[in-house]
Structure formats: structure tokens, C-alpha cells
Amino acid sequence: MDNTSLSNIVKTLSCVAIARALFITSVFYSVKWLFIVVAFFDWLPLPTKWMKIAGVSSRETRYAGMLHGVVTVIAYVIGITWVFQDIVYGVSLGYVFLVVWFQAVRAGLCCYLLWLDA
User: What is the number of domains present in the chain?
Assistant: First the structure.
């Protein structure tokens, strides 16, 4: 692994760490506008191509990447719904968003780990 790849991983994980802390704050204190602002940090690695993994040939790594993408989109659908409606059938959508988003982060981490292992 070269220094550029390592630097991109560090930048991506830093953005995710900032997003994690602020998403938790947003949901816990029900500050919905903060959710929208924090989404910027969570999605920043995508347009900057920090998340791009060069030379992916492993099928497991590609599947983990696809799983990460799908679960992230599901989490954001739940999060955006939370911005407009707090509770559905007695369940706070903010907390559901956090649970699903954390699973997306875990899938993304698995993708990186599989790539490092290859």
C-alpha cells in the first residue's frame, strides 16, 4: 500500500468519525438541521475519491462495497424521513437511522479490511 492510499483511508475515517459524533449529537438532542450539515462530512470522501480502492479484484471486496453502498442509502432514506417525521409507530426514526448507519460503516470497514488482506 502506498502513502496516497493510506492518506485516503485516514481522511475517509476522519470524515466518518466527525460524522459519527455529530450524527449522535443530532439525534440525541433532536437537532434536525445538524443532520443535513453532517451529511456533508459523511459523503465528502465520495466526490473527492478518497474511498476509491485501486486494483480491487476480489469478489468479496466488491460485494462488501456494494453492501456498504446499499445500506448507506437505506440509512439516509430513514434519516431524511426522520427530518420530516420524528416517530413512526412509536419508534424514533433518528435512532433507527443511527443503527442502520453504523451497519453501513461496518460494511465499509469490512471492504477496506478485505482490500488490505488481498
Answer: 1
Model pTM? Answer: 0.85
At position 107, the amino acid (one-letter code) is A
Quote the CA–CA distance of 55 and 70 in Å, as a whole number: 22
pLDDT band with cut points at 50, 70 and 90 for residue 35: very high
Distances (CA, A) of 17 to 11, 20, 42, 94: 10, 5, 9, 18
SS3 55: coil
**Which residue segment(s) compose the domain that 34 sits in?**
3-117
CB 28 within 8 A of CB 78: no
Grid cell in block for residue 52 = 476509491
